[in-house]
Every structure is written in structure tokens, then in C-alpha cells.
Amino acid sequence: MPDTPTPADLQKNVEHKTAAQPGATATAATTPKPSPERGRTVLAVGVVEKIAGMAAREISGIHALGSGLTRTFGAMRDRVPGSKSSIGRGIKAEVGEKQTAIDIALVVEYGVVIPKLAAAVRENIIAAVERMTGLEVVEVNIAVNDVHLPDEPDVEEEEEETTGPGQRRRLQ
């Protein structure tokens, strides 16, 4: 059975070949190269949801993100002093180490060609998330939950109409 080389024997061969090259030194072969990755980066689900939300809002023809119930709760949450509006409302993401999948619920404006809008939203979300996070977007599922008609008031507008100016809405 032939002798199997040991790691030390392999290292000597590398040093010998490197030293044989003009201008090369033996220390160049023994110096470890720095690793391109010296740690781990973990992205929260909310980060991907916010990026996807901003990317979706860049496409014209979208009236709102989320289902009717989500928008209603979001409008109430936005009225609480000190709260921030949720950019990721209506978006759910699953985030792994290298990949992500995104689900988005939309309300579109009346007259928009929905398949073209969905394709544009999908492309914009994929481009933004992959560029900003480095994650591979494996899928973007789009659910169109409603069509906003021109004469139809928003959820926020309905709440403002039920309370007069300077009046607070009575909670039950």
C-alpha cells in the first residue's frame, strides 16, 4: 500500500513549489488568507417586510397594502400617540439563512391591469430585497384582496368622518 502523505508533507510541497517561483517566499504559502466571512449576519423578519413594503409602494396602481381588517387595525394603531405607521403592513416574510419567501396582500386602484401590476410589484420586491439583504428571494406571492373605487372612501377617511373636527372618537 502506498504511503499516504500527511498534512505536513503537503505543506512542505506547497512551500517548495512557492519558493521555486521567482520572487516568492516560503512565508507566503504558510500565511492563512483572511476569510471573506468572519461572522454571521442575521436579518429580522421585519427588515425584509419593510424593504418589501417600500418596494411595493413604489409601483403606481396600488391603493393600500393588507386586507381590510389589517388596514383597520393599522389605522387604529397609527392613531395611538407615539406609535409609528407600519411599512410592512400586509406583508409576511419567511427568512432563512440564505433565502426568503414573501407574501403580500394588496388593494389595487380601479382600472389597473392586475397581472401587469402584480408582475411589476414582484420584480421590484425581488430586486430591492436581493440588493439590500443579499438573500435569494425564492417566491413573492401576491393576493389582491380588493379594488378601490374612485368614489369609495378610505378606512382612515371613514374614521375621520364619524368624528367631528376637534372631537375624539368614543371607544366602547
From TrEMBL:
Please list the coiled coil stretches.
Answer: none
Where does the record place the region Disordered?
1-38, 149-172
Where does the source fall among the domains of life? Bacteria
* Signal peptide positions (record): none
Q: Which InterPro entries match?
A: Asp23
* Composition skew (Acidic residues), residue ranges: 152-162
Q: Where is the composition biased (Low complexity)?
A: 19-32
Family indicated by similarity: Belongs to the asp23 family.
In Swiss-Prot or TrEMBL terms, this protein is called Putative alkaline shock family protein YloU
